[in-house]
Records
---
Amino acid sequence: MKRSGIPDMASGSTRLTVALTCVAAVVAASMWATTAAADIAGDPAAPVPSASPGLGTLEPTPVSSATPIASATSAASDSPSVTSSPTATTPATGEQTYLISVRAGSEAAVAASITALGGTVTDTFDKAINGFAADLTPEDAAALAKLSEVSRVEADQVVSINAGAVFSDSGCTTNSMGRIDDGSSPSTPLGFNANWYGTSYSSIYVNNNGGISFDDGRGGFSDWGSIDLTTTSRPLVLPLFTDIDTRNAATSAVTYGPLSAAGNTAFGSTSGYCVNW
């Protein structure tokens, strides 16, 4: 658990602390369900991106020697080449969805390997991970994980996390964004002025995806995957910046508001504003 906040900023005699509380991938007394997985080890030399940080790993399911699935060849590549699996000619039984992370430029080759193994590509990803979601048997998933073009194979699962807000105050629940995906609050008054690197702001936009933007006159802020912090000109604070969808019944809506008088005492003479994701 950690607390992300904005440092105190002077503007005349007024100082600001915006209390932004987050708990790992969940904030504000919510249970957040997300796709995650037990990992099947891939190429040990490959980078290991993950759509599901923090989960334990599982060893690959051994492939039965009686039913070989992949054959190795050294003529064209150091990696095993995939041949058609016995499961490709039989009804799809025992399949489950896997998330496959691949090396850049290997997408077409890995997609072809999935098909050769008898699997079905169901989704293609190019943001959180570079790769696919595919329906495969555990044996075929283990065979796919051995390819050098594949950096990770993990079973797609739903994980619920029970957690509470780091900072609790009645003001934190003054407003609710409701159950939405990729949304922004309207311009919302802070109740005081904030000096953000020499520019004074009095309102913010709250992003459902774990960030805020001071109101710079450019409208709502609902992005999550297209922000480059090295080039953006918007005044952004991103303590928990990811793709959050609170339409799932196991989650709680994002709430926000100015701290109560009691809550402000925790910060001395500093005014505070709270957002719970």
---
Amino acid sequence: MALLDFILAYFILKNVTKLTYPKLDVLSIVLSTIGFGGILYGSSIAGSRGWGDLEVLATLAIGAAALAVFIYRQLHLDQPILEFRVFRYPIFTLTTVIGMLCFSVFIAGATMLPIYMQTMLGFSPLKSGLMLLPGAIVMGVMSPITGRILIESARADSRSPVYRFCC
């Protein structure tokens, strides 16, 4: 099925942006891989070894240092891999942080609620999944609507960093 999707996408979908063929920045790719990988690995092994373990602290420190160098490099490149300059706009930074917090709360609830329903209330996995289904349906229906509202409100103020970032 995925192969059919790739074939259909190749022939049917059209590129809507201008191709620029930017230069591949290998150092940025290596730095981001070490940075994100170090933080992910350090966080993963902290559960079994504890946050005070030397390997946990070392991988987290190496990951954080690599990410700091990566961000510094991206801020000084003409064509960065990841555009961090949008965080200079306070409203963009604020809404991004709020979005991350809301998503974290959502994921925590979506993880803890089924565990609570199964262990404390005795629900089967099927019943606990069905209890979460209405919320998932509402999110699926509302996501494109809220996206359109965001884009339209950003277009109303073309100075908005959201407009510059999305459009």
---
Amino acid sequence: MQEQPVIIIGAGPSGLATAASLNLHSIPYIILEREDCFASLWKKYAYDRLHLHLHKQFCQLPHLPFPHSYPRFISKQHFVSYLDDYVSHFKITPLYCRCVELAVFDEITKEWIVKVRNLGSGEVEELRGRFLVVASGEATDPYTPEIEGLKSFPGDVLHSTQFKNGKAFRDKNVLVVGSGNSGMEIAMDLANHGAKTSIVVRSPVHILSREMVYLGLNLLKYIPLNMVDWLMVMLSKLVYRELSKYGLSRPKEGPFSMKVAYGKYPVLDVGTYSKIKSRDIQVLPAISSVKGNEVVFGNAESHAFDTIVFCTGFKRSTHIWLKGDDYLLNNDGIPKPRENNDFYTKLWHACAGPSVYVPRSGDKVLYFPQGHMEQVEAYMSEDGTMEMPIYNLPWKILCRVLHVELKVEPDTDEIFAEIILLPEAEQDEQSMEHRYYRASPRENYSRYFSKKLTPSDIKTHGGFSIPKRHANDGCLPLLDMSQEIPQQELLATDLHGNPWYFRHVFRGYPKRNLLTTGWSTFVTSKKLAAGDSFIFLRGENGEFGVGVRRSMTKLLNSPSPSIISAHSVRHGILASAFHAFATRSIFNVYYRPWTRSSEFITPLDQYIKAVQFDHCFGTRCRMRVEGGESGERRSLGTIIGTEDLDPIRWQNSKWRCVKVKWDPAASSVLLPERVCPWSIDLTEFTKKKKASTLHHQKRARPNNASSPEFSSLLMDGRY
């Protein structure tokens, strides 16, 4: 029985990327592949004209970029060559002809047991490992649907994995079954080689160009999914016009929504649609049955064919051999959406900072569009001085939180939260006061520390100096001080799940706690600089987590990551919020704590408590601010007035309506001159407002979402 820390199943691109990452951290592994080569789908089972459907920036594997000479959309030949170089560069040596028959977790030994059949010798081998990586992919077993009479068909029946090109099919009648990307491309290849080509299209399809998808994938970083879907459909209609005259139709759901919900990709048109328009490719409905060489279709018509090519995808077999996987896969073997576990949540909040509030599902909150605009300006390094139109949108929207997912950017480690909100039908303040909801408490974790890195901490051959108080407060296991040089090995994971090995040692003159081995690798990989903060957390079960928090100076000096302007993003956000408010439909927002903009989603109870008091001139107040390694502190100041921040667009808004003069020694950081009432605490007694002033505002009445004004708003909001 062989034992390895990590067992990887599948030597396709995902398995190879995992192996390369483990190699970089010197973590032993074994990689199993059913075929006799790596990336067998690309090397053995792909048609000749295949190209990556997405721009190359979305497809390169980690730690080795594509050569600059490669085109934007990479061919099969280029990609196979790239994978050959990748395997050679990282010295990856899969075990080939290994078919996994069983993988089960042993609760006693806390190990995975994997039974593998050697297809060469026929022997069954058993492997054990602490971690199991299932990288067998979506394309596991070719799938051909059962069709009445198919066995009687005298011609050739192929699956797309057996098709190479259309040279051998000139002047033949060929039927392509399946209207996904493979089906559409194979149909075009057949038509280009002189075959009389027909294609079965059973369901509505989204047809997009490669450039449209590239734009959509970039927009999804900044704009809610439903708005990107709307734009993609509009662009598709503009470019491809009406599809019905050619036997095609568009789905009711958007292209990216269908990918998320059903795993169904839009069709990326590379020339097939023009062949359909010119009638070089005939579109036919679903197959009813096969009678000899005649294929009968759902409209009762029949046509004779010489060859049928099934482009009907694959069936996953993972759920057959992976036991106890109910929490990982559904009945079709498709991975379930990831849910944030408790340790991940704690580490995320530690990286966010002690003053950051993120709501939970079910919370009642107020959404402030003005605050959302501030975050966009801060994140995209623009000042927001460009003129914005006046939107008929309330300055606050009462919402219920439907879902929260805590995420992290793969390249920068910036944490952010995706929050799905549903506007409530009742929006007036009187309703809010009578239905008093208490929000979920802010996360508070004591067993972690944060340290701002010094120039000596980030030296290539140096170590990280652990503050003495944190070395002994339970964040780290106690060292055995009886050793000549007290030391221990620590294994921690970051928010991406990557393992990091450190050596904790007590040495030096004077003696101090240090992280040595592994620290330089961490600094280099995370591209840390002096002023950034290092986070170390100890979980309740003894596990360790590490993270980073970038300095504000670095964030402000970084170029904007967007391919579109902040002005356009603000338009899109306001249009999305308006549509959601007008139709009482869900909308997505992204909260980025590192921008240090005010929280534009506020607990309902916190808002109600704050606005019931007068914020009079001369009243003393205090505000929580982050205090670096000391956690958070409170800064004192005096209220010097209240007035609208933007009386034209957001009349009577309480967003940053309070003007404060802070005490000279209030904080070492620059504090805002304007704050929201719920961001401060009054330190002296003030009278409550009268009920008549609390409830003087009527509920805003949005325009009809189907009106011309709304259509114009959406168009303006996108560009």
---
Amino acid sequence: MIQSKLKLTYKFDDFKELLTFIYSGKCNITNENVFVMLDMAEFYQIKDLKQLCDDFFPEMELNLTNIFDMLEISNKYSMNRMKESIQKFISQNFKPFFKSDEFLNTEKSVVTEIIALGQIFAIKYEEMFQAAYEWSENEAIKKQKELNDGNLNMNDAIKVEMQDFLPYIKFNQMEISFFEKYVVKRGFIFTSNELSDLLESVQSNVRVKITNEDGQSIYGLIPKKSSTVNVIKSLQNQCSDGPSKRIGAMRYLVYTVYYYGFFVGICTDPPDTCYLLAEMNSETDFEFTEDCKIEIV
């Protein structure tokens, strides 16, 4: 894929920009030459030029057509800033992303990397599972056609592909309606005992909802038997004292030891003074404001 874009020999104008950078520390990087400049920087081991290319990539427009090429390039050349932009784009466009033909036909290593992103960027586990399953199903269909084997057991083929994705998916954080309608129908990827245990864990949760003053909401799941449920019920229709603090990249509902109250923080690693209660997700954008309300729904 990349090789079709990056030739082994470079054009005069591209090499001129390389020499200009070597002598002056400056060059003109554009959408048209950035991939070639990056390849030359890698080939000639010019770290400063490579960094300049990495700084340029966030300015480029990402879309469902070029995102896979960009992801492949970021991996090949270890482009950190570029990778950050790609990950943000994927997290914000995950559903159309995994529904695309490009996703269904990409390499498994790429799919695994994308599914693993879900835990970092608060992608819903329902969407992560659906993406993994649809890719696995498409892969099984392709193998059946390649082998020209009408007797290939499709369920077994899908199950084999799914095994690498399952460790990234927290089934006990799924909505019960999705689990029953989507996961159970594809229960052949689990043993009967595994499926029974997963169903029990999903059924043991209730949904907590937090709504800001603009009507935007985020949701999470907590155990039905937790004492937290009664505490939250006692707080219904009460507004928060102020906006929640932000830490890291994930949304969690936590209980603070020092202040003896609830707050919603965006954190990847809650501090020792907090008890983690639930991972929070939203259907749309959610802004932390004053006067947030919490309830069991």
